[in-house]
Specification:
The complex is a heterotrimer of chains A (about 130), B (about 200) and C (about 200).
Chain A (H helix, E strand, L loop, with lengths): L1 H30 L7 H9 L2 E2 L6 E2 L2 H4 L7 E2 L6 E2 L14 H16 L5 H13 L1
Antiparallel strand pairs in A: 1-2, 3-4
Helix pairs in contact in A: 1-5, 2-5
Chain B lengths: L1 H28 L36 H7 L13 H9 L13 H13 L8 H5 L17 H6 L20 H4 L14 E2 L3 E2 L3
Antiparallel strand pairs in B: 1-2
Chain C lengths: L18 E3 L3 H20 L4 H24 L6 H4 L3 H12 L11 H27 L7 H4 L4 H36 L3 H7 L1 E3 L4
Antiparallel strand pairs in C: 1-2
The chains are: A mainly alpha (about 130), B mainly alpha (about 200), C mainly alpha (about 200).
């Protein structure tokens, strides 16, 4: 009984921390002049196809992370499994803002061929917290 | 006395040549017939004298650097530093912006730390003979170095039919080490610990 | 007739009056070191490669010493004492099967043939091992010579080395059978003889 309560409290704390981190990130993007943010916009941007720089193939976020972000993804080149992007499945996902920015930088450049704007990043965060 | 010795020598050579013949029949069949699909639970029984008696120790030193593990192990298996010679690691660290089709740039501090770690533990600096083998025959070509292109790697994977790796949805490429080498992150790549998804234990 | 057998126990370095020293200390040390090294080499194979290679070098070294010793050592260690013509060996084997083989203080003809066979088999195994170490593992003194061989050849060498190692094991087993048979047929403990060097004296 006590163990169950401990787990429940730990889960609540982790979840609230996760959403807390998401809120902090959103605040940052709002201060940069972006907003309002929508998870629908984030979701449709997630699957939008982009031409690669070589023109040979198209890429989207879902190429590696999948369309159902509660499921693990796979790196399209190496096959390495990637933990789910949904906060509900992975509460520590957004806890490190530096890490978040690093992956946005790398992955937007690879997928879209450019850095993502604050608006796009905010929409993506909303999408990840809604799943 | 001489007659006895000659007979024995001929006998041994004869048996050795049987070994060579057995090997050469593998050359012709190796791509297709040799390795058949089997369920994962079918643990191929070897002959009386086959298979591992002992657990292996690391062939290359496992990754000990946290930064390397988290920064470089995010998209792909965290390849141990002992898998390439120092000069190859330098070329990779110099070209992170075009990292095998990806952008892997790091901030300066992290890049410096990782570069130092890789050079300290590179194949040509290792005391382990298998790690050192990865530095043999490497040349500074134009293309980015690949562990899978090293002479030692190609020798060790010579017998593997491509279809169990490239044609295998659960593996995909030879760069996906730990798909088959289940103890890869401990630096142990011994063939006796290889289990190919969908095919079972590697039967040499 | 009354036979008196003298047993002198006061000086442990002197054999008992009815015992004679057959195997000299170097020979005995050689024998057990060889047996131990082969066991280590066989069991470690490439799971503990460094240890395996070390055992292999030791085996080759021991055999070199034994070959020399067979020319300059005491009587029963010399090649000339026990390496016989094939016909004599087969005659002796037939006699063993019929349980009427003569007792020899040194190696009997079959034992003598086994000595040669085992050493040659070990030599071939060791040399192919050196070749594999150079061709496949790209290490050791043969690496510059064999490192450039094709993967197919490297693998062939590996298979040959394995076949020869198993042949050696087979010979070891036959050797054990032979020792057991001879011990039974002549009512003596040949294993302890190879430890103490002493055998019951008698007519050869």
């Amino acid at each position: 009984m006590n163990i169950n309560i401990t787990f429940a409290i730990a889960g609540l704390v982790a979840t609230s921390m996760a959403y807390g981190s998401a809120v902090n990130l959103i605040e940052g993007y709002r201060n940069a002049g972006a907003g309002p943010f929508s998870s629908d916009a984030g979701g449709s941007a997630w699957t939008r196809q982009h031409q690669s720089s070589s023109g040979e193939d198209t890429r989207s976020c879902s190429s590696c992370h999948g369309t159902d972000i509660t499921q693990p993804g796979r790196h399209i080149g190496t096959g390495k499994p990637i933990e789910p992007m949904a906060i509900s499945m992975n509460s520590a996902r957004l806890n490190d803002p530096e890490k978040v920015e690093k992956w946005f930088r790398r992955n937007c450049r690879w997928t879209l061929g450019r850095e993502c704007a604050a608006q796009e990043k905010g929409d993506f965060i909303q999408f990840m917290t809604s799943q | 006395m001489k007659k006895t010795i000659s007979i024995i020598v001929l006998g041994i050579l004869f048996i050795a040549s049987i070994g060579a013949v057995m090997s050469s029949s593998e050359w012709s069949d190796r791509e297709e017939e040799r390795y058949e699909k089997q369920s994962e639970s079918d643990d191929h029984e070897h002959g009386l004298f086959r298979g591992a008696w002992l657990d292996s120790r690391a062939d290359v030193r496992p990754v000990e650097n946290e930064t390397y593990q988290s920064e470089c192990g995010g998209c792909h298996f965290a390849y141990q530093a002992g898998l390439l010679p120092g000069q190859d690691w330098q070329r990779i660290m110099d070209a992170l912006v075009e990292h095998y089709g990806d952008d892997a740039t790091l901030d300066e501090l992290q890049a410096a730390e990782i570069r130092g770690y890789l050079l300290d533990n590179a194949a040509d600096s290792s005391t382990l003979s298998r790690a050192r083998a990865f530095s043999v025959g490497s040349d500074a070509g134009d293309a980015l170095p690949r562990i899978t292109n090293t002479r030692y790697f190609q020798r060790e994977h010579y017998e593997i039919p491509k279809r169990v790796v490239r044609g295998n949805a659960e593996v995909g490429s030879f760069s996906n080490c730990q798909a088959c080498h289940r103890t890869a992150d401990a630096g142990i790549y011994n063939e006796h610990q290889v289990v190919i998804p969908g095919f079972g234990k590697w039967d040499d | 007739m009354h036979e008196t057998i003298l047993h002198s126990h006061d000086n442990i370095h002197q054999p008992k009056a009815n015992m004679v020293r057959v195997w000299d200390p170097l020979l005995r040390l050689f024998h057990w070191s060889l047996a131990g090294s082969f066991a280590i080499a066989y069991v470690t194979e490439d799971d503990l490669l460094a240890l395996h290679v070390w055992a292999g070098y030791l085996i080759l070294g021991l055999i070199m010493i034994r070959v020399l010793w067979g020319f300059v050592g005491p009587r029963y260690s010399r090649w000339s004492d026990f390496v016989k013509q094939p016909t004599e060996i087969f005659t002796y084997l037939k006699a063993v099967i019929q349980s009427r083989a003569a007792r020899h203080l040194g190696h009997n003809p079959a034992g003598g043939a086994m000595v040669v066979a085992l050493m040659l088999s070990l030599l071939f195994t060791g040399f192919t091992g050196l070749a594999v170490y150079g061709a496949q593992e790209l290490s050791g003194p043969m690496a510059p010579l064999f490192g450039g061989l094709s993967e197919g050849w490297a693998h062939a060498l590996e298979d040959i080395h394995e076949v020869l190692a198993n042949l050696t094991l087979l010979l070891v087993l036959l050797h054990l059978v032979g020792v057991a048979l001879a011990s039974l047929q002549h009512r003596e403990n040949l294993v302890s003889a190879m430890i103490t060097g002493l055998k019951r004296s008698g007519i050869e």
